[in-house]
Amino acid sequence: MDFLVVRGKIIEEKSYSMTDTLKVLLACMKCFHQMFKEDFELDGVAISFCGLIDVENAVIDAVWALPFLQGILWRDVIQKELGLHCEIENDVNCAALSEVYFGKAQDIKDMAFFVIGTGVGGVIIRNRKVCQELIAMVVNLG
After folding, report:
1. Across 36-110, where does the E strand assignment appear?
2. Which of 7, 25, 96, 105 is most buried when burial is the number of CB atoms within 10 A of its CB?
3. Which of 34-38's residues contact partners 24+ apart within 8 Å by CB, and which partners?
């Protein structure tokens, strides 16, 4: 699912059928980008993905769903294909940070956050940030 977010508000969202190739996924991302680049000055792409993420290098290290996306250097790919900066983060971390900055946890400094869906994931938020010291211990079951 793609979202166009301006000043913390979702302006547009679009979903695509999931694919099993990077080529088709990038074509969908390019289509979404083309729809809005005339009306909005886009600053970058944020990718939220399940699995173990190397945030510093913008790489999916381990993923059980869609394994063809593992090991891709996302910053390089998005810069080449869309001409935009890219950040990538674990989906549970993104959900937790969304609650901290825009949702029900705006007044909370420290919390445990869990997502229960096709798998189970969790993160500790300390001082309104993902507790990086615990990332190595995070386990996603699914």
Report:
1. 44-49, 52-54, 59-62, 85-90
2. 96
3. 36/4, 36/12
